[in-house]
Structures are given as C-alpha cells and as structure tokens.
Specification:
- There is one protein chain.
- The protein is α/β, with parallel strands linked by helices and about 290 residues long.
- It has 2 domains: about 160 residues, Ferritin (Up-down Bundle), CATH 1.20.1260; about 120 residues, Response regulator (Rossmann fold, 3-Layer(aba) Sandwich), CATH 3.40.50.2300.
- Helix content is about 65%, strand content about 10%.
- The radius of gyration is 21 Å and the shape is globular.
C-alpha cells in the first residue's frame, strides 16, 4: 500500500501546486484568489493526512493491497495534471478556462487507484475515516463555491459527476427520547445519523468512528454534555470545531463554560429549519488538516 499512498500523495501535491499557481495568477480577483489559496492549503493537508494514515496502517499491520500502480493510469493522470499546470503557467487564461482546468484537476485526482486507496483506508477506524471525510468535504466545498458563481453552472455540473467518497455522519446526543427521534428524522436528509441517550453513550460512539457533526444536549444523566465534550477532546483534540450544543437556558458552571469556550451553540427551542441549517453549516465548515 505504501507505493500507492505515496503516488496518491504526489497527485495531491501536484493539485496543491495548481491551486497555488491559480491563486497567484488571479490576484486581481480577490474572491477567486482566496478560494484557490484555500484549496491549495486543503490539498496539502490531504497529503499530510494520507501520509499519517499510511503510517498508522503499517503500525497496525492492516491487509496488503490487492492492486498495484499500472503505467496506463499513471501516464493518464500525471499527463492531465502536467497539461493543466503548463497551461496555467503560460498565463493566458480567463476565469472560465481556469474553472474548467480546476475540474480537470479534480477528475485527475479522483482516479481508480485513488478511489481504491480511499476505500481501503476507510475501514481502518476513526482516524482513517477522517482522512476520507476531509477529502470528500473538499469536493463539496468546490461545489458550493461554484454554485454561487454566475458562470459556475457548467463546471459544477461536470464536477457533480464525480461520485462521493463519504456520507456525512452526524451524532445526536439527547436524553429525551422524543427529541432524539425527531432530531434523527430531521437530520437524516443531511447524512447518516446515529444517536446516544447520554454523554457516556456518546463518548463510546466518538471512540468508535468519525463524525462530521456532534449535536449534544447539556443536561443529561450519567454524563452531561459538557463532560462529554471535555472527554471527547481527549479522544480528538480538535473535535470541538465539530460540536454543536443544543440546549435551553444554562446556569451556574454551565454559563462559565460557554463564556470561556469557543464552541457552537443553538438555543432551545429552535425551528427544524434552524437546526438543520446549523448542523449543515458545521458539516461544510472548512477544517484545518493537521
């Protein structure tokens, strides 16, 4: 698997160079330049995540790959990326053409070997699942950006032909059975939803798999939402950016917690639309890939 992951990491690195170059070329368009700079940062983050996942895979002695890099795929993918970089470096690009090249770069990344590597590492556990989730979020971020551009329709339609790698996973931690069921039903439109009745159950879920969003009440039996949050940080130090507390009036030490902790919060009662929107915003929020 090492050779495969190294090759896929190299493809991610080349994509980062394309986005970095595009950001420099389009400095006159601040919105586009910032977007390309963000994409370059994400691609570099993906490369680091893949390398960390491969190290962890080796340490755990996971299964060896069933396929190897074939020269036809290598030439096809690397050829597309080289062509895109060369055209970018020649400097005679308008906005429409650079968006077309961006889609070509993404198609080059999502090749058969890349998809195989993603499927292979996805079954390895929480940290492996995070790698796949972050890479899939990158594609969805591009789609959202294109959807807001007046000339983004054509590249968006092309990009949407790429199959997703990951279904958004949401964890609802709520002790009220009726509210738990309602939240599960409401949020199922956004992805796969799992539930827990208290912080202890929620913590076991977090230890067992990666979640894009954790929606938690505060007052619960056995383990409160705040204690759950603090314990979850020991499992994943950056999990706080994926937390959303959904609670009523807070008092005493809970007030101190929310005053001193940078964590998202939605007050009860809230409309179904507000809940869904808050969860969706966190699911699509840009992450820092360490």
């Amino acid at each position: 698997m090492t050779d495969l992951v190294q090759w896929v990491s190299g493809v991610e690195e080349t994509a980062a160079k394309f986005y970095s170059g595009a950001s420099q070329r389009f400095q006159a368009d601040p919105v586009l330049a910032k977007f390309f700079a963000d994409m370059a940062e994400e691609e570099e983050g993906h490369r680091r995540l893949l390398q960390k996942a491969e190290i962890a895979r080796g340490e755990r002695g996971l299964a060896h790959p069933a396929v190897a890099i074939d020269q036809m795929t290598r030439r096809r993918v690397e050829g597309r990326l080289t062509t895109a970089l060369e055209e970018l470096n020649r400097g005679r690009l308008d906005r429409s053409r650079v968006l077309e090249l961006m889609v070509e770069v993404e198609f080059s990344e999502w090749n058969d070997l890349f998809l195989y590597v993603m499927e292979a590492i996805k079954g390895g556990g929480r940290e492996f699942q995070r790698t796949v989730a972050e890479i899939d979020r990158h594609k969805r971020g591009i789609e959202r950006f294109l959807a807001n551009l007046p000339d983004g329709g054509k590249p968006l339609a092309q990009l949407q032909r790429i199959s997703p790698l990951w279904q958004t996973r949401i964890l609802v931690v709520e002790d009220d059975p009726a509210a738990n069921r309602l939240l599960q039903q409401t949020l199922s439109r956004l992805g796969h939803v799992e539930t827990a009745a208290n912080g202890e159950e929620g913590l076991e879920k977090v230890k067992g798999g990666y979640f894009d969003v954790i929606l938690s009440d505060v007052k619960m039996p056995l383990m409160s939402g705040i204690e759950f949050y603090l314990q979850a940080l020991l499992v994943e130090p950056d999990i706080g950016e994926r937390f959303l507390f959904f609670t009523g009036i807070v008092q005493g030490e809970h007030q101190d917690f929310f005053r001193t902790t940078a964590v998202s919060r939605l007050n009860k009662p809230a409309s179904i639309l507000s809940i869904r929107r808050a969860v969706d915003d966190i699911a699509h929020r840009r992450r820092t890939c360490h």
